[in-house]
Amino acid sequence: MQFDHLRRREFVTLLGGAATWPLATHAEVAKVWRIGYLAEARRQVDEIFRQSLRKLGYIEGSNVTMIYRWAAGGSFDPLADDLMTQNVDLIVAVASPATRAVKERTTRIPIVIVDVGDPVAYGFIPSLAHPGGNITGMSMQLSEIGVKGIQSGYVQAG
After folding, report:
1. Residue 65 β-bridge partners
2. What is the spatial distance between Cα 90 and Cα 33, in angstroms, rounded to a whole number?
3. Alpha-carbon distances of 47 from 74, 114, 116, rounded to whole Å
4. Which of 78, 89, 140 minimizes the C-alpha distance to 114?
5. What is the pLDDT of residue 44?
6. Domain annotation for the chain: domains and CATH numbers
7. Which residues pair with 112 in a beta bridge?
8. How far apart are CA 23 and CA 150, in angstroms?
9. How far is CA 57 from CA 5, 20, 23, 108, 146, in A?
10. Among 14, 27, 37, 131, which residue has the least CB neighbours within 10 Å?
11. Sequential pLDDT tens for the chain (158 residues)
């Protein structure tokens, strides 16, 4: 899958649980999407991710194959290398070490980041407004978002 076939906002929304990721039309041959998932360990939100995929019609073992790799205190590098050989269509990278490992290995495969502190400071993207390249996702960094929220009145102090 080429990155331009997968719109950034759709996948970010998917990770939030309310996606609009388009399903294949009846005229298309059913594709089995291959999603690599790189994280330190299993987390409760991983099941929410799978449930969100199911709600959108993406069923593991049917039209989606999930390839999970867990670092479990070890290095992310060999796991990222392994995902590169798995012919994945997309990689979900949970936290900064996983993101760094996959970013160093591909500019072609789309990477959706989750729970990354400050992707700009870590050098993963040039800016939150325009991440560019093959990386998109959610950040735990609140400096730019927090300032915007305070300016607009959405964030209340106290």
Report:
1. 34
2. 8
3. 23, 14, 19
4. 140
5. 86
6. 3-152 (3.40.50.2300)
7. 92, 136
8. 37
9. 18, 11, 7, 26, 34
10. 27
11. 444 444 455 555 555 443 334 444 444 568 999 999 999 999 988 898 899 999 999 999 999 999 999 999 999 999 999 999 999 999 999 999 999 999 999 999 999 999 898 999 999 999 888 888 999 988 776 555 555 544 554 444 43
With tokens 């993207």, the residue in question is 125
C-alpha–C-alpha distance, residues 91 and 21, integer Å:
16
Q: Which residue in this structure is represented by tokens 């936290």?
A: 95
Count CB-CB contacts under 10 A for residue 82: 13
Query: Which two tokens mark 78?
Result: 């060999």
With tokens 């999603």, the residue in question is: 35
